User: Fold this.
Amino acid sequence: MGITTKDLAQLCGVSRTTVHRALSGEGRIHPDTRERILRVAREQDYRPDLLARGLVKGKTSTIGVVVLDVKSEYFAEKISIIGAEANRRGYCMNIMLHGNDKEMERNQLLRLASYRMDGIILSSVNEGEEYKRFLESLDLPVVTVDNKVADGLPFVSIDEKEAMKEAVSRAWNKGYERLVFACPALADGPNINFYVHLQRLEGFQEAVKEHGELQEDYLLDWTYLERVEELAKQEKRTAFLCTADEFALDIMKKLYGCGLEPPEDYGITGFDNIDTLEYVSPRLVTISNSVNAVAQTAVNLLFDLIEKKAAGEEADPGELTRILPYEFIPGETL
Assistant:
């Protein structure tokens, strides 16, 4: 068992209050006494019990982050930005992965709350008013990103719908006559929060209807690689609009094996602007989801809410939702 502040007090012949003043750098204490206590603490390899200290002070200087996984570049980059800002502010970060499991997400949040996180950033697979009440029952600031859980909760994202509407307009303006929406995740069922993908789908549908009518079989599910060759070879010039760059790259690879290349034989647009695109030729047309800005905005909002909670202040409802601009990234595939 490690040495305690009580042990340090006995070794130095001072009170525990004096030891706490020396270790925290707060309060009045003679410089020689402080130096002696710090020297003994180093010699005895003293390590503060941060959890116990946090319970006493009502804060642990730790935030939680709950996301799908860390395999995708999107979540990895987001966590990196959040972690850097937390570290700059003297905070630690506890990462939890829900893996698209609704009950696991709930359990991870309960665990973080029991560890007395000062706040949590959540990319949720759950949604609805009942889940909103659950999040509020945790009694700590929670900022949601990507998938919206319910109105009234802190939320940061980009304008997903408008981004996809612009992608449709650009494809029409390039002369493509048939537009196909590749979003395999939507086939996973109605009981998962697919807010991001649904927003993009609505944007696609609305924009296509402005130019004409939705054509039959415009939506591709997990069988998309089995269908793309047939679609690309139809008389009507076809453009694939994908909800992730990974899907777009899979389609390009599949069609390259069939002797088809963009933009001569078909058009294609991705979404996310992942770093891998720098090494792909032809350069994929895509949409940046502004991961840096979303992550930075979310973590800044979380710390604002943490400070307001500590001060007993109410957050301005108008500041709880932040919809950030996206960026259309030109390339060579449309």
